[in-house]
Amino acid sequence: MSDWVSTFPGYKQALSSGKKFFGRVIQTGPVPQHVGIIMDGNRRYARTHKIEIKEGHSLGFNTMANILELLYECGVKVATVYAFSIENFNRTSYEIKWLMDLAKSKFAQINQNGLLCEEYGVRIKLIGNLKLLPADVLEILRETEEITKNNTRAVLNVCFPYTSRDEMTHAVKSIVSESTKERVIINEDTLARHLYTGNSPPLDLLVRTSGTYRLSDFLLWQCVSPDCAIVFVEKLWPEFKPWDMLKILVNWGFNKYWYGNSSGSGLNPRTLRDLESDTDLELFNSTPHVGFERRSELDDDEEEEDTDVSSQLGTEEETMTSEDDADAKVNTKIAQ
């Protein structure tokens, strides 16, 4: 049904207007500043719909453009997409060549038109082990970076080719190289700064499509933060629509607003370190905290039980002492 609707005259204009409208609505609440996307399911979609695999990848690229447009309308500052894994070099030479050709053609279009980048002020940044790319592909990608380098409103990190293990290895090598020139304090912050995403905000939301419940070596360091929500979607990537992304953003903003974190865990969105005034402290103390109260009740019950046990033990000790005294008197009389 959705494929038929997309062919209706005026569909694209209506979709673009809808993105702008809902984008303004989303901006009234919390908005994730950094969103990561694992665009999975292009090949399965092609096999399911009996089309060539290269057509599945092409449809996936169009989906990416639609989703990115919505994200930037909503106020997302950085989007990081998993475009090509280093592990994908293990696929057939035909598919690898097609993926490289697809990248060249699509980025060439961006270089010629660049409507999305111009409209939203998007700067494209390539991250990954670029030494593995063919020279002609790397040239076009570098040209795209150069054309968009002055855009400052938003950033699109294109992971091509990329794995998180390779990223962390690169970070360690960079730290070692830097330490030979100057004194470096090595800690978690140091490693985070040397990652490919070191200049990006912390990852707030990670979305993976195709119903696969794993991260496939993508942003492993960045997504372990308790402030990062990970969402797995059953739909294949070409089937993933802006409406699906919109629902995820609404749910993220709702949990962030009411619970203070994107996953919705916790009974109260505020903690003591968030309180900045005596009024806030009074409000916090007057707010019911079910978990805390229940814990206090249990503590009181345990204290009462401990008191009862102690009293009972004291009575038993007194009884034993009296019995010992009586036995001692009997023994004394026998001895006399």
UniProtKB/TrEMBL annotation:
Requisite cofactors: Mg(2+)
Entry EC no(s): 2.5.1.-
Chief place of localization: endoplasmic reticulum
Protein name: Alkyl transferase
Function text: With NUS1, forms the dehydrodolichyl diphosphate synthase (DDS) complex, an essential component of the dolichol monophosphate (Dol-P) biosynthetic machinery. Adds multiple copies of isopentenyl pyrophosphate (IPP) to farnesyl pyrophosphate (FPP) to produce dehydrodolichyl diphosphate (Dedol-PP), a precursor of dolichol which is utilized as a sugar carrier in protein glycosylation in the endoplasmic reticulum (ER).
GO cellular component: dehydrodolichyl diphosphate synthase complex; endoplasmic reticulum membrane; lipid droplet
First-level EC class: transferase
Acidic residues composition-biased segments: 298-308, 315-326
Pfam families to which the protein is assigned, alphabetical: Prenyltransf
A single MF term (Gene Ontology): ditrans,polycis-polyprenyl diphosphate synthase [(2E,6E)-farnesyl diphosphate specific] activity
Membrane among keywords: yes
Compartment(s) of residence: Endoplasmic reticulum membrane
